[in-house]
Queue: 2 jobs
Job 1
Amino acid sequence: MRKRPTNVDTVSDAIANDKEQPWKELGLKQDEYQEIKTILGRRPTSSELAMYSVMWSEHCSYKSSKIYLRQFGEKVTPAMKKDLMVGMGENAGVVDIGEGLAVTFKVESHNHPSYIEPFQGAATGVGGIVRDILTMGARPIAVMDQLRFGAPSDPDTARVVHGVTSGISFYGNCLGLPNIGGETVFDKVYQGNPLVNALAVGVMKHEDLKLAKASNPGDLVILFGARTGGDGIGGVSVLASETFDSTGPTKRPAVQVGDPFAEKVLIECCLELFYAGVVAGIQDLGGAGISCATSELASNGGKGMKVQLQNVLLRDDSLTPEEILMSESQERMMAIVPTKDLKAFKAIVTKWEVEYSVLGEVIDEDRLYINWGEQEIVNVPPRTVAHDGPVYHRPVEYPKYQDALNANSSKTLLRASAPAELAKQILAIVTSPNQADKSWITAQYDRYVMGNTALSMPDDAGMIRVSEETGLGITLATDANGKYCQLDPYHGAQLALAEAYRNVAVTGAKPKAVTNCLNFGSPENPEVMWQFKEATAGLADACMELGVPVTGGNVSFYNQTGDVAIYPTPVVGVLGVIDNVARRIPSGWQDEGNNIYLLGTTKDELDGSAWAETIHGHLGGKPPVVDLASEKKLADLIHGAAIQGMIEAAHDISEGGLAIAIVEAALRFNVGARIWLDEVLERDNLDLTAALFSESQARVIVSVGREDDVKFQALCEARGVPVLRIGVTDKASGLIEIKDLASFELNEVRKGWASTLPELFG
Amino acid sequence: MKIGVITYPGTLDDRDAQRAIRLAGGTPVPLWHADSDIKKVDAVVLPGGFSYGDYLRCGAIAAQAPATQEVVRLAAQGLPVLGICNGFQILVESRLLPGGLIRNEHQHFICRDQRIRVENTSTAWTNLFEQDEEITIPLKNAEGGYIASAETLKMLEAENRVVFRYLDVNPNGSMNDIAGLTNERGNVVGLMPHPEHATEAGFGPDTDIATRSGVDGLKFFQSVLKALVNA
């Protein structure tokens, strides 16, 4: 065992002597370092410098995005706030879903670690978001992943795909959380910068809500869960080498390592602690570890804290105080426990064989003191670390390439008119990696565990029952279209929201709240900041119009390789509520002879479409027009019809257009259909290419039993939703027959659709 | 009838097993791994999950738990025991069933609706099935490849102890397509697929009739209730 370091930089050292400090290497700017000195009235100790540098980093402080994120809290109506129990700023937002229950959900990025070390990066991404949910007092009940990889043909893509998928599979399955959906997208812009976002959702009784604050002086500060090790401390090694003639290991892994078994035990242990009522405040340890947990708990409670850092249980005794403060070792939590409850706390953690140590106590003073043995190494106002970080007004500039990109419309692309050629195009899109069957990935995830999964992939959204007594359930869908956002970030972000909202609506649920994960390039690039500004404004405006509040989320900047940024990719997650999951609507046809209706109108909108990409390798023009009023009408209509049990299946029309929606609805349960398009062509004044592949918004295909025909059409008319019968289901034929165009054998289509990913990665 | 469900650290499908018992008409009794008192239950389910994080070997540490040891003792006296997935691995590790379970042939975790054939209907957990009935229940595992020596396989086949066999695809490379086994006496049954995930319409596998309406797993739990009544 290595020896505990004794030669530390103390507060009295800092008062006694000023010296050169590696603030630059730690990512701080000159004026930020100066600001720290002003706050403290002296130079920071190396431990304080470590804390400020990590807490003031982009990742923790949101310094570039803060001024834009505010509008998610501002552009809200009283009606939107009504069911919001906890809004933005906490670990995750909390929404009242009725029956005394509340739901908390959030999506977060783990992009950079997942490129360096795909398996652990993706695994710990799941672990981190699940702890955020747990921290609110909720039992985590499901996860979803939003994955964006480079081009399938690139030799490095398979490494990332395999690593990320097995990492999620390894961690999520072992935690016992059903994985109920998500996204997988391939595009060369993500080659050197894959996006690995993870969403988790949890449920709790209203009274179990927990907040991350330490507000009662005398309460104990307890660290429990896994021991603290040297993982995930990246940059802070600068300090170690600066202060010490390094006796410890010199190279620390920058990526954290996950142990899902430890997390599963920690979840059950925490829930038992919550139910026993022995925890006054709780915070998970993720980015910035103990630095973050201590300063945030104290700052949120408006109090201070006294901490003995040598009480932290370590995996490696040679860790320096700076490293301990910064370590991102996984599966750890910090609890604020009243002294009188310590015995009960001990009994529960002992039952679960979870280690803990008392680090200190809450004090009635606006100060965070951290000692290393007898020596004081941190003495700061907690708020200055946790909340009063820098705020940037980064320069914003309209991209030079934007006008040319928008002018390059798909209108000039060659369109086929021969039926055989169009049929070939349909198959080409169906079997393209972005539209093909994703079950090679999703079959590696457990979707059954907990026994409450009412819908999961490949349906349009995931649905989980939260009450076994009443059948009350929640629905979740996430979407993003980087291509649309590249063409127009304001409307692109709105389109992501519209699609997720629609995907929730087609299951029969009522959309209720929003989370987002904003993946962008470098904020130091004014053109990227313009994209960010546009996307956040678009999303906030659209949320207001649809009446769904943003409850929280995450920003991931610096997603770029060299100077080339990814497409702006704001992933939007929508949470819906359904009174009884027994009324859920699947995405595929099931019964014989049901009528198939197209809801909504189709415009000639092929810019940024799957057709333009797959058939012509083209991206340019303007994305489809956003029509939120129609989205709302459509959602209300489906919700109403679902309550009356009129809709057998509903599937949203998005990437790939009507053609792909039809194929997917048929493949879901292997039920064919006879389709005719003449009326669509005539009513909407389209050619066949537009009718089949246009990505016009606010459209859904539904199947309705014959007995409900008249009623359904009357309902559509009353609600002002355009409706057109375009076909009838045909169970026996095993065919999709599109009149005057082509006839597809379902088995053949399935073969191609299902073999794309296995052939690429199997 | 009281049916115990043991929870180990890392067990995941314990609540699902309890629900399945309830739906079948039994009374589920939660049991704790560290407790050798198994509360006079009439039968025991070892549920799925990752007990002890699959450290060492899947099921190896759980096999040493006080509750498991008590189950092993009582199984010899005829206590009906069902091991599902990780529970099957625990049964194998505690030598109640022969052979071993290794990493899936294709190296991936796999979750799918799996068709299997019930080939032995005389066990405590299968007596309500028809001989050779084909059923669909979910399968989800990373270490489900059944292996045994040629001799053991021969014995299992000769004594009709292969209770379930995979149909359509062998999802994990199991020898002889074996999905589940029983002991000599027929009171202990272990299998990789998950009957408890196909016991409630709306949350099971898809069927031709409706989405997620498969409840083929219910008969496992009804069978043991019948066996206990008749015993």
Note: Chain A touches chain B through 38 residues (CB under 8 Å).
Job 2
Amino acid sequence: MPKDSGIGASPKRREDNRFLTGTGNYTDDINLRGQAYVHFLRSDMAHGRITSIDTSAAAAMPGVVQIFTGADFEGVGGIPCGWQITDKHGEVMQEPAHPVLAQGKVRYVGDAIAAVVAETAEQARDAAEAIELDLEELPAVVDMKAALQEGSAKVHDDLTSNLCYDWGFVEENKPAVEEAFAKAAHVTTLELVNNRLIANPMEPRVAVGDFNRATGDSTLYTTSQNPHVIRLLMGAFVLGIPEHKLRVIAPDVGGGFGTKIFHYAEEAFCTFAAKALNRAVKWTSSRSEAFITDAHGRDHVTTIQLALDGDNNFTALRTDTHANMGAYLSTFAPSVPTWLHGTLMAGNYKTPLIYVNVKAVFTNTVPVDAYRGAGRPEATFQLERVIDKAARELGVDPIALRRQNFITEFPYATPVAVEYDTGDYHATMDKLEEIADLKGFAARRAASEAEGKVRGLGVNCYIEACGIAPSNLVGQLGARAGLYESATVRVNATGGLVVMTGSHSHGQGHETSFPQVIAEMIGIDESMVEIVHGDTANTPMGMGTYGSRSLAVGGSAMVRATEKIIAKAKKIAAHLMEAAEADIELKDGAFSVAGTDKSVAWGDVTLAAYVPHNYPLEDIEPGLEETAFYDPANFTYPSGAYACEVELDPDTGKVSIARFAAADDFGNIVNPMIVDGQVHGGIGQGIGQALLEAAVYDDDGQLLSASYMDYAMPRADDLPFYQVDHSCQTPCTHNPLGVKGCGEAGAIGSPPAVVNAVVDALQSMGREVTHVDMPLSPSRVWQAMQG
Amino acid sequence: MYEFDFVKPSSVAEAVAALGEEEAQALGGGQTLIPTLKQRLASPSKLVSLGGIADMQGLRLDGADLNIGGATTHGTVAAEAAGSYPALAVLAGHIGDPAVRNRGTIGGSLANNDPAACYPAAALASGATIVTNAREIAADDYFDGLFTTALEEGEIITGVRFPVPEVANYQKFLQPASRFALVGVFVAKYADGVRVAVTGASEEGVFRWTEAEAALSGNFSADALDGLTVAADGMMADIHGTKAYRAHLVGVLAKRAVAASA
């Protein structure tokens, strides 16, 4: 019987009331008195030297307040990178300066050269067109491998080359891996591309900077997934404003998918200009601007090799990846192809020896950073594709080959530095076979064939590391910040609660699911709990939302704070009932004395805390408000098994998703409906990557897919109905809720299923096709059929 | 967008006069022009809306011809041509999305002559006549390459006259992002022969596939197209499809159009 409240229930999302009725409060809804508008003059050249900028004519245009160029930011900090990688030689990565406005050179199409602040947005744009700019075109660095060739043009003249780092992981394993390959009975090799993507949240980025001359306080309203991180990065590293004089507010945010984690130059500019001009300054990205300024995702080129012994056991794995950083290092960029990627290369399998090499490369393209899954999709895709290829080469069932090599004992220490706490990969595969009705595939294939279509089946597993992370561990790995989470639980006198969380909700439904946890713990109605997030002025220092971490880390902080509340409330209840604290029980919103019929209601206790007429003032303080910071002991490890069936039109190469099934193990689940929605959305984005989406640059560094005319987003009719199940639950052992996180799973697990299915379909037509690079557009699939 | 004046005349004569001014630009449904203006890629001094001219609205069946006013929206054609020229109605009903179909017009589409637009294929395959304020232009003489037509400066498409075929069908293969035609093939069978027009494929814009027309005029069945191909040379190529792929699709879609209409 499904519950109707608390953990495990599926109440409708309370925040949807405002989102669906147009009463949300997004950053672009914020308009301050006397606000001016900024328009950025952006480079239309991928690589060029700024030989002159003349702003005099533009400055005389109507409505212009001031025009800023790179020269105005000399002495101001640059946009910092939040992660430092140490390469295989023990050297730290090359880290170029990233000025707020370009200085000397432009390095990608979209790089901001000048900023025009004017009374209206149109006037700012008009004046930007009047800036006289001379750029000397330099050779564009676009292809990663060419970028590393001797004699290549350099994106950054002051670096030794375009190589950011050459990372080996685990370097000490390398000789043993080589030896295992030498002894292998079979080696499968696969070269592939993990296509570059653009996140395209529904809400483009917006920033409004404000300055209060009376107090000297700066405020930034921004479309961010982590306002505290922006405050720290921008305050400490760019503008030199201490936290107590800087407030960052991320109100309702219309989707992030990673690309709103990072600190962007536009945020720093608006905050800087507001102070310089003593008036609010607003920037609203156009959709066209978003394509060339929001950090892109993925963009890996990989060669992976799997070694097997004569019994088809995986004996070693090695992988060699070029990872595109773009022109500058975005906030998390260096960590994505390394610690979020290399550490997941064991997947669900007990491969004893693994070596990962990653060369991160600067190019004249938009900076690349985390996008839903961030490194884990890239790891999963290559691993699950090479296993599928191996099964086909060996003539064995792809599922059987996976099962044979599954990790079955937990905890399990992988050869790539992480320890899985729990999992049951056979159980999720069993569940997948059931919900995907794999037994019925042959009949469905025959039915497709009768209609002139070719059906293929692709299956894969995935594992991810979520809930990032233990601060001490990530610190060793190069993170320049902690990765705990925080919560303050404030109980009001009449019993209602407000939770101020460092997590940020931009579509995840925290305002609904977090109260379910508190309601369960105290035994009160969910409507008595309100979630506050997104404002550094009224939430404790937290690290924000990404990496499927909110419930696992932020929810755990909330649980810890609530435990403190309950402990204190029990003391108060014991006093009110003149009983021993150890005998107090909390159930269904009432405190009782064990073994008696004495009881006081939750509201009586909370009132006593604030009206302490009858109160143990000698032992405890009045009030009922607690804060907790939670730093997990480990990552969490959601896992699952996915199956995709495609129908391929042999005349045109068009691929349609006929069926898609996902069996996930997310540990315990708070709101199954929200989890379904997260999985649906993730699969939608994964299918988008597999079939449709690609950010494509030409040789001159021009983005060819710079609008929805050429960048294909998945639409409703591209997606099937899903069979989704998350009844396999091996709870996380080290967080109080036993939860693992579900936000990224769909995007991680789905691309290999789609590609495996298409390769299956092509091979069933007798084509000797072993791989097709994403996106599997009709043209590409048709081309593959010709070969 | 840049500033411009806006007028909405109620007659063709007034519109022609307004368009005689320097840098004046006719505005149909604005489904191409308005985004272009927003991108600041055009800067007309005056927009002359054709949406207020009653004579340019609606459909009229006149014997064997279907006359459609130049300012008639795709949505109206989709709804009102369903009985008289169903293949044309289906084509109109699959242009863009409902918002586009509610504003976009047949005259605007034909005047713009986007190489991936649908209407040019219908007009050419139907042997339609483009009626302007000044003259009548046969479709065969009207289309003149990418975004180029026989229209003179300031000339307005007041209507289009479609001879209604015995049977017809339009097959559109969607470009995955824009959902314009990556390739579209319109086949129309008349008593005196079959016409086949292809959009989306050629570097020269919409064209008639005369070999297919000859084959189908003798034998109106998909089999008649066996072995016929268009040359990849001269096809468009972009990130969505190679020249060879577009050439291949022409054959596939032509067969499907014949099969669907036969």
Note: Chain B touches chain A at residues 39-40, 173, 176-178, 182, 238-242, 245, 248-249, 252 (CB under 8 Å).
